[in-house]
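Model it.
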Amino acid sequence: MKHIEQNRLGDMGEHYATTWLWDNGYEVFKNSGCTGAIDLIARDNEGNIILIDVKTDTTDNKRGIRRQKNCRTREQIRMGVQLLRFNPETRKLVFVEHRT
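Modeled.
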């Protein structure tokens, strides 16, 4: 995959996450700022609200190691934020299963 700036890669992850959530029956609301504990708010057809932080996998080009971000901040844990991981090479998304 060609080199893409980190912020563009993050934007791409959020775009794919939004369309993936739409395809799975969610209404999606985006954070209007570029910082914060939440990227997206999703609402399913039963009215359940999910607070989402999209994490885009990255590759360490020097070592060829794929890095996956599966950790939430204390604030995100307190708020019940779910991480949604995006792999930019495959365009796949998966919710991270958090320990309780």
